[in-house]
Amino acid sequence: MTTFSLCVYCGSRPGRDPVFAQSARDTGALIGSRGWELVYGGGKVGLMGMVADATLAAGGTVYGVIPQNLMDKEVGHTGLTELHVVDNMHTRKTMMFERADAFVALPGGIGTFEELFEIWTWHQLGVHRKPFGLLNIAGYYDSLIAMLDGMVAQGFLSPAVRALLLVETQAEPLLQRLADAVA
Questions:
Q1: Rounded distance, CA 69 to CA 78, Å?
Q2: Which CATH number is 115's domain given?
Q3: Which of 89, 96, 157 has the alpha carbon at shortest distance from 128?
Q4: What is the mean pLDDT of residues 31-48?
Q5: Number of compact structural domains in the chain
Q6: How many CA atoms lie within 13 A of 125 on its CB side?
Q7: Three-state DSSP class for 136?
Q8: Domain region containing 84
Q9: 3-class DSSP state for residue 3?
Q10: Can you list the positions of beta strands (E) in 14-153?
Q11: CB 137: neighbour CB atoms within 10 A?
Q12: CA–CA separation, 20 vs 153, rounded Å?
């Protein structure tokens, strides 16, 4: 593998706790300092913009994909290595999927959840074998993790499929686990 491409899903808002913003910046700095490529939704706002800016500042490349309707609302990041403006969300997610070697979700809203669960579902269905993880900053995803474990306990999710989701509370060990899973 020449360059490791990590797709980051995260909020288009910064969240209330400053630890979320710091985590996005730390994640971007790690991606950039390792010479990796960030693949993300192309926004300049919220955690999305923070992770992109930190990746660029640390010397990494950033590949963004944003739908035209969001570009029209002036939320697109025009300072990226590469920015693709596409017609719709389906094209956006497909391009991000194709470019990425692995996926990670930072804190975010329903869009972040949807993207993570789609990648997870595609893996379960055999569409891909790329690793994916969840960065559980300040317990943000504790209730989701408990719900997933409850799904296993109730027989709606197999332990093997549950184990596919790599979870860490700090960016560095999670990013390393994802890179190791691809190598």
A1: 15
A2: 3.40.50.450
A3: 96
A4: 97
A5: 1
A6: 7
A7: coil
A8: 5-182
A9: coil
A10: 37-40, 61-67, 82-86, 102-105, 132-135
A11: 22
A12: 30
pLDDT, tens digit, 9 for 90 and up, residues 102-130: 999 999 999 999 999 999 999 999 999 99
CA nearest to 47, candidates 74, 16, 70? 16
The three-class DSSP label of residue 168 is strand
Sequence length of the chain is 183
Nearest to 63 by CA among 105, 92, 25: 92
Give me the pLDDT at residue 3, please: 87
**Closest by Cα among 162, 142, 143, 141 to 152:** 162
pLDDT in tens, 2-37: 589 999 999 999 999 999 999 999 999 999 999 999
Whether 116 contacts 145, CB under 8 Å: no
The number of beta carbons lying within 10 Å of the beta carbon of residue 168 is 18
At residue 103, what is the residue type? F
Amino acid at 172: E
Q: What is the pTM of this model?
A: 0.96
